[in-house]
Amino acid sequence: MSEHSEPERERIGIDPEYDHRREDGVDEARLEALLGEYAMGRDDHENAPAFVIRPDDVQEVVSLLRDEAGFDHLSCLTAQQYEDRYESIVHMTKYDRRTHEVTLVVPLPTSDPVCESAEPVFRTADWHEREAYDLVGIEYADHPDLRRILLPESWQGHPLALDYDQDKPQVVSYTEHANPIQADHRVAESDTMFLNIGPHHPATHGVLHLETVLDGESVVDVDPDIGYLHRCEEQMCQNGTYRHQIIPYSNRWDYTANLPNEWAVARAIEDIADIEVPEYAQVLRTMATEFGRMLGHFLAVSTFALDVYGDFTAIFQYGMRDREVVQDILEDLTGQRMMFYFFRLGGVCWDLPEPREEFIEKCRDFLDELPAKVDEYHDLLTGNEIFQVRTIDTGILEPEVAKSYGVTGPVARGSGIEYDIRRDDPYGYYDDLEWDVVTEDSCDNHARVLVRLREVEESAKIIEQCLDLLEEWPEDERTVQSNVPRTLKPDAGTETYRAVESAKGELGIYIRADGSNSPARFKIRSPCFHNLSALPELSEGEYVADLIASLGSLDIVLGSVDR
């Protein structure tokens, strides 16, 4: 944070006794001083101070915030359209102080919505701005590759723009039989080859297309082509009502570990609607979500074994064995095996299943067996010589590069970045429990697997403490849900960005209310989207086989990438 002496504070108009500081939050007075010549005004956001800036000052302002104030994490960029303007909204925070947040609001005219690109400062803005252009129609000057990212290039219009005709059918034309290595694309002295990997390939973990240039077996360039699973989740959430119709959609994003998705939506809506959650319900949420995190990590580790040495009979089956036990527990708790919908605004849908003692004993039996099972994973996987050769010193992602791409979750923590929203921006019951943030410093594919295995053990510690609390909680104080109005209509103009720590990383939700019972804008900040954008950094210069390992180490789910 940039420091100012007392005389300097007086010179730039800051009352020495005045402190805008929120609880453990950013010092707004310092931000006002830092951005004084750039800020055209202020805006009200529930989660962070918001400054209105000019569209041609974006690079200067984000550079200033990064270099002078330590805001090294561009976590989300949201685009939206009003009747009289467009807005590009940049949300920034810090990897070492998550509660220090700032929002930049860039208004743009409806006739010519052009904004300066933040990509030269933060690489993560590349994909962010392409999506904003694709879905809303804002153009970003100086962007290195401004083209559609989720929809085909020949798509007409921008689906989240106000003038978009949703009823008009479209015939989308594709390039027919294009040959990427035809004669006029060849260079006589070059030995490179263009290779399509996917979009229908088991090693891509879903419908992902990798446009890859190889020099022999080495990767010269790789360009992830996404959008094959785009289902307009943001627009569907904007058409749903706050009370019941949005949370169920979230289970379809990262469907391998989806309980944190429900919490992300609940946290954002509870923020703008000022809804309190009973303490007992917070314990239930925390326990259920950690079981959900285990679901994701067991699947990530077992499918990664398939990626690197095709082991279906051992590691994959071990992962499915343990995942099934967790799914049985969550089925008892929620009534569903996959699309849980356990969260409700203000709490959860119900208490532990009866008889409580039987359910708690089932959970404890699983936790008691878990250390031996984790040891099995280390014996079969991380201690395996083939696995070590394939993962150690491959897929290197240096910390500063990871930060520039907005990487979070086990991918960031595998690069030594100690960033976990459960601890750094506490919610639920996490702040009252004993557990550790897991990091590894080797920055490679091996480190990311180690982080996930160790996080399973940390989740077990959290669940154990939650079970103790639930077991001892007085029966007449077991309130699972607060009294929430049947119809929610947050005040028009209320805006917030709230995030939770999913199995993949920072899952954030931006909501703008317009006074109705549905959001005017609902933006999903997907950790898989950001983590996948960094794949070229992990892969260029590696062997093509290492590209597959690096992709698997990211643990992406295309339902979360494309949304």
Automatic annotation (TrEMBL):
Single GO cellular component term: plasma membrane
Residue ranges occupied by any NADH-quinone oxidoreductase subunit D domain in the UniProt entry: 313-563
NCBIfam families for this protein: PRK06075.1
Chain intervals for the UniProt region annotation (Disordered): 1-22
Organism per entry: Natrinema salsiterrestre
Pfam families the record matches: Complex1_30kDa (PF00329), Complex1_49kDa (PF00346)
Recorded topology in the membrane: Peripheral membrane protein
Key words of the record: Cell membrane, Membrane, Multifunctional enzyme, NAD, Transport
Subunit structure, as described in the record: NDH-1 is composed of 13 different subunits. Subunits NuoB, CD, E, F, and G constitute the peripheral sector of the complex.
Family to which the UniProt record says this protein belongs: In the C-terminal section; belongs to the complex I 49 kDa subunit family.
Top-rank taxon: Archaea
Keyword Nucleotide-binding recorded: no
Compartments in which it is found: Cell membrane
InterPro entries in alphabetical order: NADH_Q_OxRdtase_suD, NADH_quin_OxRdtase_su_C/D-like, NADH_UbQ_OxRdtase_30kDa_su, NADH_UbQ_OxRdtase_CS, NDH1_su_D/H, NiFe-Hase_large
The protein's name: NADH-quinone oxidoreductase subunit D
Record-level Gene Ontology MF annotations: NAD binding; NADH dehydrogenase (ubiquinone) activity; oxidoreductase activity, acting on NAD(P)H; quinone binding
Catalytic activity: a quinone + NADH + 5 H(+)(in) = a quinol + NAD(+) + 4 H(+)(out)
Transmembrane segments: none
Domain NADH:ubiquinone oxidoreductase 30kDa subunit: 52-169
